[in-house]
Amino acid sequence: MNFKKLEFFLENEPGYRIKQIEKALYHDLIEDWSHATSLPNYLRTRLNSEFPIDKYNNSKVISLVNNTLKNKTILGDGLAIESVLMMYEGKRNTVCVSSQAGCPLGCIFCKTGEIGFKRNLEVFEIIDQVLFFARYLKKAGTRITNIVFMGMGEPFLNFTNVSEAIGILNNKEKLNIGARHISVSTAGLPDGIRKFANIGIQANLAISLNAPNNGLRTKIMPINKKHPIGELMKASSYYVKKTKRRVMFEYVLIKDLNDSLEFAEELAGLLKNYLYFVNLIPYNGKGKLKPPSTKTISSFKKILKDNHINVTERFRFGRDINAACGQLACNGKNN
Length: 335
Ligand code: SF4
What we know:
This protein has helices at 3-9, 17-27, 41-50, 111-115, 123-139, 159-170, 190-198, 214-220, 223-226, 229-243, 261-270, 294-306; strands at residues 59-62, 68-74, 80-88, 92-96, 100-102, 117-120, 146-149, 182-186, 204-208, 247-253, 276-282, 310-313. It is of the alpha/beta class. The protein has two domains: 1-53, DNA polymerase, domain 1, CATH 1.10.150; 56-321, Aldolase class I (TIM Barrel), CATH 3.20.20.70. It has a ten-stranded mixed beta sheet with strand order 1-2-3-4-7-8-9-10-11-12. Strands 5-6 form a two-stranded antiparallel sheet. The structure holds iron/sulfur cluster.
């Protein structure tokens, strides 16, 4: 829902209306304005016709294993984006949101990269992805616990809107999700990392690294040509000094490309900082690139551990509905 248009629409209403509307939307998680009982009838009717809730969220695919739900949102201009809810056995409900329609960075393991860049998402388009799942979970008697900006797009290329959206997600009177439960994943834009450190949001930073040296990283992530690893490590170290917070380095393991044990040794050498840790993500997709073997994953992990690097492995959600990392791609249009 376009908040700016909504504010304009309410300009002749008393000032307290906006608070009532925010409570209905963010707190009561209404699905229809007729349920916003604090509002007068005439206003509920007008809101239903001019600002219908959930107007565009028209495609839902529920994972066969029933712990993942992917939603496709058709935006006002007909472009489509995807977001995913991952439910961890009643302990955590994480929503993965998109920040752009498409993405200009073209990482080779990523479906979104293949479709190219369409446009940045507006703040309300980011928030609507979250509200959709918040309403879904409310019916199940639970709530969103975590947000990750790891869907379609590079969040730091849409820095202003992403940071404003984080403000709304974190605001106690709005979605009230603790900043430490919000993570932003970047392909490694040094200026974005510094800006993120400077604005003082307590959200987590993840950097998609995927290779321990420039030659290999440029093959996997073309952005590395413009911002090589040295620059990235300087920005990470700035972030750590400024915020005293940990940085997660994501490493998508791809068979016979970046999963050799030599690369694990080289990675361990690169990440010698007690506030750095590695999240290994076994490649999920189909096609030319292949997932690593279970044996390779555990040997890679062992080398990092032996070198005193903290390492975790990401559980693979939603592979059956193309909702796993690097699989969000609805061609950027309504199809
Ligand atoms: S992995 Fe992220 S940055 Fe890379 S192409 Fe995909 S969406 Fe863009």
